[in-house]
Amino acid sequence: MARRLRIGIDTGGTFTDVVALDEDGGLTTTKTPSTPADPAEGFADGVAKILGLLGAGPEDVAALSHGTTVATNRLLEDRIDDLGFVTTEGFESVLEIARQSVPDGYGNSYFWVKPPRIVPAHRVRTVGGRLGHTGAELRPFDEESAVAAARWFRDQGVLAIGVCFLHSYADPSHELAMRDVLAREHPDAVVSLSCEVLREYREYERSVTTLVDAAVKPAMNGYLARIAERVASRLLVMKSNGGVLSADEVARQPITTVLSGPAAGALGAAFVVSHSGHGSVVTLDGGGTSTDVAVVLGGEPTLTTEGSIGRHPVKIPMIDIVTVGAGGGSVAWRSPEGALKVGPRSAGADPGPLCYGRGGAEVTVTDAHAVLGRIPPHLLGGEVPLDVGAARSGLDALAKELGLPFERAAAGILEISAWNQANAIRQITVKRGLDVRDYPLVAFGGSGPLLACRLLDVLGLPAAVVPENPGNLSAFGLLTVDVKNDYVRTRVVRDAELDPALLGEVYADLEREAADALAREGFPEDRRRFARSADLRYYGQAFEVRVPAPAGPPDDAFRAEAVRRFHDAHEALYGYCYRDDPRHPVEWVNLRVSGIGPIERPRLVERPPGDGDPARARTGGRTVYFDAWEETAIYRRERLAPGDTIEGPAVIEEFGSTLPLHPGFTARLDGHGNLVVTR
Fold first, then answer.
1. 210-259 pLDDT tens trace
2. What's phi and psi for 33, nearest 5 deg?
3. DSSP codes of every residue in 270-310
4. What is the pLDDT of residue 534?
5. Both ends of the chain: CA-CA distance in Å?
6. What are the tens digits of pLDDT across the range 139-180?
7. Can you tell me the distance from the alpha carbon of 249 to that of 235, in angstroms, rounded to the nearest whole number?
8. Rounded Cα–Cα distance for residues 363 and 355 (Å)
9. pLDDT digits (tens, 9 = 90+) for 280-328
10. Which of 48, 19, 16 is nearest to 34 (CA)?
11. Are 378 and 385 in contact (CB under 8 A)?
12. What is the pTM of this model?
């Protein structure tokens, strides 16, 4: 009988992580080096490696779920070229005017230099025709100027084009007409329409989000095509909103994948710790290039539509993630003033840290861990031997420049890296009105657990949880995710004037769109779920708060309950609300529906406790530097049993990650195989 395997593949900056789930419940994990020049190659290597370990063939694979950084890296590295923009006549400066705001407040306005626009002014073309905010046509679509714009882009060789007309969220007909003109006059162009990418108001954000979609489309579609050539199985791609979608659907809207990789990690962490009784946690995904932090409340990662990637605001729903350039490959350097700095630049996978022996020339965070003995002299169970001597030479030179002993310099690098991570965690908790001391930390990723003990100290966290196979948790997370698509429609109306029939009409319309997409994904009617939400604000406010809409038909009781939830959410976020104040009426802005196709999740079984003696897992010792050099016990994690407790100083090693347990800390293995670290 053929096996049914589901495989999760997460492509990171340094390693490609692979997890295979046999549908009878067995889990197999491995890693393979990433191939930045063509990530599809690393993807295919990962599939081949895990099938080899399982003695299986491509015919045994039921589905592949993939978290990709192709779109993210393109935006972070600002590799956006040859992009064109079509907008309404008279609105050609929408990108120049932007939000008229200077980042970091007015104090920065003297120093701030306006970054280049995503599309330079000479590649913006306008088309006649005008809609009102209700969708009523004020002037008809001007075909002649549309043809002229399409021919201009064709003659200039501009192949990626974003189209955003004023008020097309209310009626998309003018944008659809523009697409027909482009298809006829410039058939080679890749086109993104704002009515398909983001059907809500705010012209600037809608324009940029549409242009970002057009910018990543050629790279993303080429990448997905190269994967399809190499693997015959059904391919699902992780989206920023916490769902997956088939590669064919993602190719239509690649912008939905801009936080694909980090989103899977947050979901994997939420799934694993919910079984251990932690509903709300902070997640920390430490990789080779960066660290991603998110908050999980009541088992669900928090979502935002106010996200940005690099300098580009992206208004699609995405898991609320803060990323800092603090990974294992982050480079330590001396500023012109003589201070020690760490990151955001990374040595990546190639050449990588000094200790990889691949020609790296700069000291990194991994080198500091290696010379202090906090990681073993080889990674991935011996697959990657480390040249600790090369790391030591590089650190000696840097320490001499700083006038410090090399241990102090190495410990300083790790301390700065820990504070960089701590500041990211503060940003996503304290700045969102949450007390960071209430939430355990889930540390995963290859480098995530390395600084967990310092983060408990710096932030006053109650505990750190290190899941089993932490280095592969993002890939595992891909197997826990439902198919999910989001739909939005702007309807700005005061609550007192809102006709419940309008609510019913818009929600039904959005649910129809969501149902069509789920049908294309192969979900029968009885397996489709719809989650409604709404963005509300007080009249006169510039920004909205999103709340889940109640179940049942949209009648007066539905409306009243949504408004009550808005008051509660506003009070939790900002510390006040206008619940019974008629001077501040509530206004509805956007209505949203998520279409969800549930998938079969892995089963996590609880293990029986061991004999309570962790000595069976001890493999010897080595000298490790914490506050001073001391002889430290080394343990193999896979030999520990539930109930085992280890006192620091100790180092707990496993295939994809290492946990240095500082003096004064304790690690206990729980029934689901998680290490729980406390002071």
1. 999 999 888 888 888 888 888 777 888 888 888 888 888 888 888 888 88
2. -60, 140
3. HHHHHTTT--SEEEEEE-SS-EEEEEEETTEE-EESS-EET
4. 94
5. 50
6. 999 999 999 999 999 999 999 999 999 999 999 999 999 999
7. 11
8. 9
9. 889 999 887 778 899 988 878 888 887 777 777 888 888 888 888 788 8
10. 16
11. yes
12. 0.82
Amino acid identity of residue 175, one-letter, is: E
Find out whether the peptide bond into 649 is cis, omega within 30 degrees of 0.
Answer: yes
Query: What is the H or E stretch that residue 125 is in?
Result: strand 124-127
Contact 425, 436 (CB under 8 A): yes
How far, in Å, CA of 280 to CA of 270, rounded? 8
Position 545: which residue type?
Answer: V
The pLDDT assigned to 78 comes to 67
The per-residue DSSP string of 635-677 comes to EEGGG--TT-EEESSEEEE-SS-EEEE-TT-EEEE-TTS-EEE
Total Cβ atoms within 10 A of residue 59 = 9
For 383-440, how does the pLDDT look when each residue is reduced to its tens digit (9 = 90+)?
A: 778 888 989 999 999 999 989 999 999 999 999 999 999 999 998 888 777 888 989 9
- Paired with 464 in beta bridges are 441, 677
Contact 140, 129 (CB under 8 A): yes
Dihedral sign from CA coordinates of 56, 481, 315, 307: negative
Report d(CA 219, CA 285) in Å as an integer. Answer: 26
Q: Is the peptide bond before 172 cis (omega within 30 degrees of 0)?
A: no
Phi first, then psi, for residue 349 (nearest 5°) are: -90, -30
Residue 292 φ/ψ, nearest 5 degrees: -110, 130
Rounded distance between C-alpha atoms, residue 471 and residue 32, angstroms:
12
Return the pLDDT at 30. 85
- Beta bridge partners, 139, equal 130
Could you tell me whether strands 483-494 and 441-444 are parallel, antiparallel, or unpaired per DSSP bridges?
A: unpaired
Percent of the chain with pLDDT over 70: 97
Single out the residue of 522, 669, 444, 489 nearest to residue 591, CA to CA: 489
Per-residue model confidence as pLDDT tens digits over 431-457: 777 888 989 999 998 889 999 999 999
- C-alpha torsion sign, points 358, 359, 362, 363: positive
- Give the separation between CA 646 and CA 632, rounded to whole angstroms: 12
Residue showing tokens 């000291």: 363
**HSE toward the beta carbon, residue 511, CA cutoff 13 A:** 13
Q: Tell me the torsion sign for CA atoms 227, 228, 234, 238.
A: positive
DSSP 306-351: S-EETTEE--S-EE-EEEES-STTEEEEE-TTS-EEEEEEE-TTTT
Which residue, chain included where needed, has tokens 């192709």? 70
CA distance to 12, 238, 315, 517, 595, per residue, from 513 (Å)? 33, 20, 20, 7, 9
Q: What is the pLDDT at residue 606?
A: 81
At residue 574, the 3 state secondary structure works out as helix
